[in-house]
Amino acid sequence: MPTAEILNIGTELVLGETVNTNATFLARHLSRAGFQVRRITVVGDIPQEIQAAAREALARSQVLVVTGGLGPTVDDPTRAALAQAVGRPLEFRDDAWEEIVARVRARGREPTENARRMAYLPRGAQALPNSVGVAPGFVVETEDRRVLVALPGVPGEMEAMFLGHGLPYLRRRFGLQTETLRTRVLVVEGVPEAWIDEKLGDLEKRENPFLGLSCSPGRVHLRLRARGQTPQEAETLLDQLEAEIRQRLPWPVRREDETEKV
Amino acid sequence: MPTAEILNIGTELVLGETVNTNATFLARHLSRAGFQVRRITVVGDIPQEIQAAAREALARSQVLVVTGGLGPTVDDPTRAALAQAVGRPLEFRDDAWEEIVARVRARGREPTENARRMAYLPRGAQALPNSVGVAPGFVVETEDRRVLVALPGVPGEMEAMFLGHGLPYLRRRFGLQTETLRTRVLVVEGVPEAWIDEKLGDLEKRENPFLGLSCSPGRVHLRLRARGQTPQEAETLLDQLEAEIRQRLPWPVRREDETEKV
């Protein structure tokens, strides 16, 4: 399974002012597409921190998806730090600039001088169009074929760009059209996690289907996950695991979506 | 300004099944207390990944606060990985075990065999009591005086342990202005959480005093927390909040310690 990491850049994140829903969104879509997300990293808008975190991630994993800091303001140093992390100079790109001008004019304005900053991309990068905002993202590959995908930090822009351009690029690049991840959550009420663990410990060591326990007050969640070449194959694995669990546990077990999602 | 990092451990996080609100909570409180949060890292329940991420963070920053993986189940490998990261063996601790047994018995149960896992702490660690759940946390310092604080992953347990024990430890250790936290738990029996939430929703949005709801079968716990420059100031805030709650709720409200601790 190809390995991937996520790097979210934003001082508001390390100050705890904003919940990092971008990480959750990307982790979910990368996992479902068949990537193993090894690590998620968050740093502030500090060039040295961004560059170090990006270098480390690209040394560990095949894919790095970055969010944040692609806008035109001076506190957005991501573009230069990422270019340094992949060892490429920034270059002014006419294609990116034309796209920026078109997006700004579509809003009835003229681009300001600092908007030109957004048209600088690492040499060899492919620009990713921003269908919601203005700043383009990009994909660039390193000498040793690691893939860096840079996305805006605004969730609506990030999500549209990742699902519309970033993820399709990654799927093609790693030949991942087929494998599917399916998940299911079972709930047991009023029984301590340790009692359930005693009955299911060996199932928690399997890779596929995978079982993990987590708890919230008064209930234990059994998180089932399975991968298959088809959704049907993954669902069958989940069905088998669920049957095994129900057979072993002497307490009522229900699927989470029977009530929580109504 | 002393530097700090956060490491959140959980496969549900790297799969994007859960939003990492623990990181936001810790980042906010560490920042407010005077720490510079340099980085937040998330890894799955994989011993090598946990160990590597903890080592790297402790090499970069003075404080590392870890959440997750302290429970008794086999998919909770955090304890051993952190002990390795700080270069200390795990030791069975009688004081931690007594606390665990007391917490389990207070719920009218007997500890299972695998609960003993939770009483193993790195040599030299100070156990942090868990006032909400069962698994203790701990603080341990490395040879070069870096501080590791390990907390449970369940948000209610993590928050109470961090505000009640972890943060006061860090403030003392780094000579940051001391502030007192006081907590109080009120219990309402036989009323759905949603009804209570409807009456108290606006109080739950306040920062200080803070009100959080949690539930166990048949009862709702109202967890009150207040900070002040003195214990008296914090107690006064709690008294005011409790009076407000009693005025709004048409059901009997009692303090948890009136019965539970007798």
TL;DR of this structure?
The first copy, chain A, is α/β, with parallel strands linked by helices and 262 residues long. Chain A has 8 helices and 12 strands.
Fraction of helical residues of chain A: 25-40%
Number of strands of chain A: 12
What is the CATH level 1 assignment of the largest domain in chain A? Alpha Beta
- Compute the average pLDDT of chain A: 89
Please name the CATH architecture of the largest domain in chain A.
3-Layer(aba) Sandwich
Largest interface: A-B, 50 and 54 residues
Give the tally of structural domains of chain A: 2
Order of helices and strands of chain A: EHHEHEHEHEEEEHEHEEHE
- CATH fold naming of the largest domain in chain A: Molybdenum Cofactor Biosythetic Enzyme, Chain A
Span between termini of chain A = 35 Å
Q: Specify the biggest β-sheet of chain A.
A: 6 strands, mixed
Shape of chain A: elongated
Oligomer: homodimer
Explained architecture:
The structure is a homodimer of 262-residue chains. In chain A, the strands form three sheets. Chain A has a six-stranded mixed sheet, with helices on both faces. In chain A, strands 10-11-9-12 form a four-stranded antiparallel sheet. In chain A, strands 4-5 form a two-stranded antiparallel sheet. By secondary structure, chain A is of the alpha/beta class. Chain A has eight helices and twelve strands. Helix content of chain A is 37%, strand content 26%. At the A-B interface, helix 2, strand 2, helix 3, helix 7 and strand 10 of A face helix 1, helix 2, strand 2, helix 3 and strand 10 of B. Strand 2 of chain A pairs antiparallel with strand 2 (36-43) of chain B, so a sheet runs across the interface.
